[in-house]
Amino acid sequence: MSEVAAPKRRSWLVALPLVGFIALAGIFLLRLYSGDPSKIPSALIGRPAPQTTLPQLEGLTSNGAPVPGLDPAVFKGKVSVVNVWASWCVPCHDEAPLLTELAKDSRLQIVGINYKDAPDNARRFLGRYGNPFGSVGVDGNGRASIEWGVYGVPETFVIGRDGAIAYKMVGPVTPQNFESVLKVEIEKALKATALP
Predict the structure, then answer these.
(1) Any idea which fold 38-191 has?
(2) For the chain, which residues make up each domain, given as ranges?
């Protein structure tokens, strides 16, 4: 009888590492796919916006004048919304009308960072949806986006009057988060006073 029990015990011990691996893989997958990626914390919240100067998008004009590139000095004294976008980014097409709507709010300025895009495609994109941006900096090699802590396009930042990042939205602006999240964060930044 003891001879029969020993092989059963050994087969269970052989299967134990496999059971442990399956359990760990299950926990990993659960953590990977649970939660909202837009709630990824940013180490830049509360810190000054990166002092990154970017060239203008060649050939982009507004009312006959060239649209300027990104100058970090533009963030001081006014609430800004910075959107990192590209013409090849499918969610960017979906959020474009919402940014155009947001641009009607004269209390703030909308700044674009065009990420690794062909200039002709970027201009066509803005021609199709309208240009909500007062300035558009071209990040052709992606370095500026790294300085901004961008995980992927699109991403949107709210910059306070003090030039510090007040909020970061990972992923697209949608009709749902436009009203319930982005506009709420913009209002908070507008109510905050600038540091002396």
Answers:
(1) Glutaredoxin (3.40.30)
(2) 1-34, 38-191
User: What angle separates helix 119-129 from helix 90-102, to the nearest 10 degrees?
Assistant: 50
Q: pLDDT of 22-74, one tens digit each?
A: 877 767 666 555 554 445 556 788 899 999 999 999 999 999 999 999 999 99
Write the pLDDT tens digit of every residue in 92-140: 999 999 999 999 999 999 999 999 999 999 999 999 999 999 999 999 9
Tell me if residue 194 falls in helix, strand or coil.
coil
Tokens of 36: 């909202």
pTM: 0.78
Q: Evaluate whether 111 touches 51 at the Cβ level (below 8 Å).
A: no
Cβ partners under 8 Å of residue 30, min gap 6: none
